[in-house]
From TrEMBL:
Chain ranges of the Methyltransferase type domain: 61-141
Signal peptide start and end residues: none
InterPro entries: Methyltransf_11 (IPR013216), SAM-dependent_MTases_sf (IPR029063)
Lineage top rank: taxon: Bacteria
Name of the protein: Methyltransferase type 11 domain-containing protein
Protein source organism: Pedobacter steynii
GO molecular function: S-adenosylmethionine-dependent methyltransferase activity
Amino acid sequence: MEEQIDFKEAGKKNTINISPFDRTMISKTVDQLELADYSLVLETGFKSREYLPFLFQKATGIGYYGNNISEALVTGASSAPALKINEGTAQFNQAKEDGTLDFENNFFDGCFTVNAIYFWKDPISHLKEIYRVLRLGGKLSLSFMEKKNGVELPWTQADFTFYDVNEVKRFFKEAGFVNIEAAQMTEEVTGQDGTGKIRPFINIVGKK
């Protein structure tokens, strides 16, 4: 059964169906951070708490901070029972439309974001803010559907801006990231006919 996820980006509300298979995209994105014990991790554009057990099992004492523009989503996540796995902790904060983050410089060891870049009005400004709050050596792992694949999906016809891999790599570079690496990955999703299908996506990692 698909879970209905509501989220609001760029001042507008969008509703998409997220299949449990989509957690593969999230899990592969998190893997690229290679988290150590007691890492502080930011997720921009979080949509669910369901994959936090996976994250907390990556290392001991992870401090997770989830950021989303939807007040309802943040309130719902914050009011749910606390997760107690490997000493991990979770906090949820409402994001600002311009990408400004309410965290001090050099705060996080890693950041990840999945399927959020489509809604950023100014991707470079968002990436510069993420760069600012990362510690030296911290990584950003960002995953997205490339333009040639995303524009074909029926639920992406409005309020989505797609990019190709070279554009996003350029955004990373202009924001200050180094050691930028892009990889083609896949996830399995459930099609309208109920069968599993393989869908490609891009993961880009940059280091501060």
